[in-house]
Amino acid sequence: MKRVMLAVAMMLGLGTIPAHAAYPEKAIKIVVPYAAGGTADIFARFVAERLGTKWKNEFIVEVRAGAGGNIGSDYVAKAAPDGYTLLLGTSGSNAVNPTLYKTMPYKAEKDLVLVALVAETANVLVTGPNHPGNSIEELVALARSKPGKVTYASSGNGSVLHLSSVLLANKKNVQILHVPYKGTAPALIDVIAGRVDFMIANGPSVVGDIKGKKLKALAATTSKRVAALPDVPTMMEAGVEGYDLSSWFGVLAPARIPDEVRLKLNAAIREVLAEPTTRERFLALGAEPVPMDAETARQFFLSELKKWGDLVRASGAQVD
Amino acid sequence: MELIDHLILGFTVALSPQNLLYCFLGVTVGTLIGVLPGIGPLAGVAMLLPLTYVLAPTSAVIMLAGIFYGAQYGGSITSILVNMPGDASAVVTCIDGHAMARQGRAGPALAISAIGSFFAGCVATLAIMLLAPPLTTVALRFGPAEYFALMTVGLVMAISLAQGDQLKGCAMVVLGLVLGITGTDVQTGTLRYTFGIAKLGDGIDLVSVAIGLFGLSHIILNLEGATRRHLELAKIKSLMPSREEFSASARPIVRGTILGSILGVLPGGGAVLSSFASYTLEKRLARDPSRFGNGAIEGVAGPESANNAASQTSLVPLMTLGIPPNPVIALIGGALIVQGVIPGPEIISKQPDLFWGIVASMWIGNIMLLILNLPLVGIWVSLLRIPYQMLFPAIILFSCIGAYSVDNSTFAVWLCVVFGLLGYVLLKLEFEPGPLLLGFILGPMMEENLRRAMLLSHGDATVFVREPISLVLLLIALGLVIVMALPKARDKRKEVFSE
Description:
Chain A is built from twelve helices and eleven strands. Chain A has 320 residues and is α/β, with parallel strands linked by helices.
């Protein structure tokens, strides 16, 4: 049935815009806006490899890093909207940046559309092993007793991890002091040593130290518990109402991409995500596959733009 | 017997066919770079850096480290046979090494420098094994204030150890700092020194700076002297040193090894400094110092051991504190970061296969180098016969590919050209570009830690003198500045460097 509908859709497409009749008919480029070897790159290569086998078509992964992801995103936003130039974007590069950057080279909600969500990773709030706070409640009480003195680390000003702590501060109405680092690893060293009180870090980067008792995990930022840390409560379970944040990775395209191309891409990515081996491979990276239909994905992107945008404004962070 | 377990782990990693291949590639390229005048290990590592992005992190570092210590072997060949340093750390080897060659003793000079390097390499590897793990526990006590103080010592040392005028060294460090903080400020997101050029928003790429300052600039300089350049290759008769030569070299090799191992770990130190220091030491200790300059084998044995030891032990601060003591190691650190491995105290505990694999590969690499440099020395000698006019276009091409492939950006290639010209002007005016690069690397790290320390102390600047480790380090830096300013020390320094 599905196939018939697809065929009908394709025929309809054939009638209106003949150029897209046989999409894909040439190599498709997936742009990665971050450095090679990072998580975004890994997911881009995964999508390229699986769709490539599925469609027997060539996929090229191209790294265009710089300006916190804006260079690659801008490149795709201004590319021909024919489905042959795609972006493997993230919550950071595409939901946070549009508000964080004072000048944006493109308009996020007008120029880009989220074709399909690929994966989601949970973040975890951790403290050093000897820290007095043993729960979110205790940590918040500590912060309330000495305003502005409790410190938290992040992987950078305006990063998803920074904003995750801002949301906690806002929800609980406490004043805490931000200490930015360049990346997660050096920040965690100071958290472990107790020089910084806490940090919200990417799940995969801290699971090892949590199990090795070098870090205490107080809460996960998602609405569901993290598979690798079944004993760690979610923020909502720990008493932070309405707290639900995750880092995501998705395939974006120029906004004027023809609908049938967008639907075809979305359907194919969802099929790939539903394969049992996918889940296994993503879990090894600390991520979970998130199949989402095309319309939900489109709406999700718009709501994420607003959600992260509000957080950026609340944090006061800005990049020239 | 934890150490033995670690070594077994290391050798299983290093002896995998793939890693053996990259180790061999590294030391071969290293020897090549060492032999060819005009490109040193820094430019070599910078050129090959982008190639390593596709490798596993362990293979990448095994190869890059191999280039560094391989260059120390290769550099001596050119110094001894042609009286032209193949790379900066082999400058002093020219003095007595080439004198020996003129007396028909080129073979023994080559043999002793290879044997000395090999001995030093083995001992330095042992030193890394014993030194690094305990250092990581100390490293965890290093907070932002301590890091800031440590880097202050590093920069002051870079100035005091720079050749030539100290004021010039100081100027180079400051210029490096300014270049280093170009781009977006981590804490406020403000753009600094970008002059409206969007490409500079992410800062200046280290690879472009290194290729320009240390690769292109030397090529221009070499071309300038190209007409004067005629290679007079000394003949090699027999490689075997005499018994007297062996016994005369034994002590210098041991002393050079110890000196190099220590100086390698210090920030601002490294292979070049170690070879100079060792030469000075040997001359001081000699019963008849006048022999130096006329073919004293001690003047070859000591420095050649020292530079190889230093090139290996300088990995220690990177693997334990995450601080690169010299520019080559900074590039190796950069390679790790690209791979998602952050250099620091966590490496040894979290990625023991990476650390011990690299350590074990150094032994293997040194054995390969011994073979490459003694029985096969003829191959390298014939390389020296290739006219420079044919060599330099290839070097420039590789440099450009290297710079371009970091970010697929032509802007990086233009930056290389700019820094190549800057480097040329600096060399002409006798400004040493080494301190500039160290300032470039340490500057942003220093600023970051300074501001983080101030944040964590809630604006209390006394944190730097309240923390004991930080206080001691800052006092050392102050002491160094005072010593530098003393007229007596200044004269002495001049004397040392003029040798």
